Structure formats: C-alpha cells, structure tokens
Amino acid sequence: MGKGEESIPDEEWERFLREAEAGTQGAPEEPSARARMVARRLREETGRPEPWRSPRPARRQRGKGWYAVGLLVAAAVLVVALDPGRVAGWFGGVGGGGESAPLAAESKRPDEPPPTEAAARLPSLEQPFRGSPAARWGDGTAGIGLPEARATGWMSKGQVAQALGRTQDFLAASSLDPGVLRGERPRKAIALINPHQQDVQDYLATAFRTPSRENDPLLLFSRFEKTKVRLVGDVVKTRGRITYREGKRGAVEVTTDVTYVYPVVRSAAGSDEVTRTIVRREVVLSWDDPAKVVVEPDTFSLVSYKVHTTNGGCDTFTGYLTPKFSAERAASRPGDGPEVDPYDRSTSMETRIREAGDAGCGTATRS
Length: 367
Description:
The chain is an alpha+beta fold. It has one domain (31-82, 128-364). It is built from eight helices and eleven strands. It has helices at 10-22, 84-91, 157-175, 178-181, 187-190, 198-209, 326-331, 349-356, and strands at 32-40, 71-77, 138-139, 144-145, 229-231, 237-246, 252-266, 275-287, 301-310, 339-340, 361-364. A hairpin with a 5-residue loop joins strand 6 and strand 7 (252-266). The radius of gyration is 21 Å and the shape is globular.
C-alpha cells in the first residue's frame, strides 16, 4: 500500500459499487476528451473511394518514380476531468496491474477492445501502467507483431526479412528512442526515409522549424518537452503489428499499426503524479525497386501516415506531446463528442479517424 493511502471500509466499497452501477451523480466520471481532425491528400490515388473530408489536391511531381505522401491525417483526444485523489481513496494502492501473464504478439486485428477492469487503479512511479490494458502489453518493439517473410514483388524472401527489420528500426527510432522522446531530432528515423521524396523532405524541414496543424512532427514522431515532463522509467508499452503486400511497380508496401503508451510525470523535482499519453500510429511505407523508383539504398518512401493521440495535446502545435495532469483536467470543459477507447485496436484507424470527424470535445473512456 502506497504512502498516504488507506484501506477501504466494506460499507464504503459497497456504496461505491451501487452508485457506479446506478449511474448516480456521485459516481466517478469518465475522463472527457477534445478531439480534432486535420486531413490532407498529397498524392492522387486512382480508384480509391473519396475520403470522408475533402483534401487539397496534390502537388504533382515531375520525373519517373518520384513519390509524394498519399494521406496525412491526425486526430487528438485530450483526457480531462478525472479526480485521481478521489479514485485513489476508493481503490487504494494494492495491485500492480501487471499480475496477469503478458499477451502474445498481435497477429491480426482483434475482434473487440481489451476488457475494462472492475476497479480502475491509478498509475504510480513504481507501477506506471497499473489500471491499464498496457500492463500486459510488450515492452518496446517486443509488443509489435512481425510477420514471416516471403518473396514479394521485386524482393526475395531474405530481402523482405531485411526490409521488415528496417521497418521495425524506423518505429523504434521514431517512437521509442529515449533521446527522441526527450525532444531531440529523430535523425536515425529520418535517415531511413527516401531523401528524393521532396514533399516529405519539405514537411520534415518545416515541422521541426515551425510546427503547425499541417506540418506537425507528431504525425510521425513521439516527442516530449523535457523541461515540462519526463518519462517514468525506461519502458514504453506497445501493441500492434506489421503487415505487407506487393505495391505499385512491384514494391513491397509495408503497413505498421502500433499503439504506444507513455507514462510521464512533471519534470519538476519531487513530482509523483503519473499520467499516460497514448499514441496510435498507422504508417504505410514502400520499399521500392531502385530500377523503377528514384530511391537511395536502405531507404523507403512514405505512402501515408495517420495518428490518433490521447492526452497529448489538442490544437497545441508546439511539436511536442503535451499531456495534462489532474488539476488541468479538472479545469477543462466537459466533452460533448463521441466516446473513444484509446486501447481499442478492434477499430481500424480509418474508421476511428472518420468517426472522430470534427466533433470537437469527445470522451476518452479510459487512460
């Protein structure tokens, strides 16, 4: 039992369960959220259905085999209005949220979201994933399912295996690297992107210099401002998978769909309130045949990227994830949009982005 936490009398526990089930005013509210959507298409995609929101037309590229990013989409959910002191008083500090066996790597999209615990338990410095489905997820790249390699398109089985490994390297360098998470420039990740993909290079140059709604580094990279928050421990929990198929011009098109869970505290000395930022990214990349596409060795071309963020900031284009803590959440206005479960991977990113729409404030059912 943690410092300052007391055991719960039986009558208090029974009262809470009755009120929660009946939906009385005194029962704890689900954390609210504000969702935003920004969409842009930079490449004409013949034969694809119209997007849910009309994009700007692509800038056409001249020259054979030059790629432009096909779709750039972001949605954010900002968790608010959860009173951790009250909840801690109800549930105490017993249990680590990690007593169950770890889940096997994800090999396909699940049929339903992970179960909700009967009693949500707050994270702590010692157990930052307590009360979260992420407690059973893998650490770092161990939580990302990697398919078996087979000869595809212009690549042999061995080349596909190498491309999958480099894809995993990109995920690690963009969303797991300790330096990048502290706000450093993701140089290793950027080095894996085709330097001849001019639209992407323009985006990267602008995003780190003057981040904005359309040029936001968080679309591809996870970064926190180290003067404001810091990670708890050295583990980022992940769940997701990598798939691939033959793409255009015989390329090997790889799709990554991964949810990252980052536990953080304020950077100020002595801070001990842990909150979590949850980021789900779908990045589609193309390992192109150099005989058909202008590409440097061991680099890929970006096809599209989508991101959905919970408690990472909403309409705050600073280039950093900006989580809120209890005092800030309590002061935020209640949500008026649809509910979102950030741990639900049974819904595709396309569906999640479409459902988020321009609803404004939504509700995050858990954090």
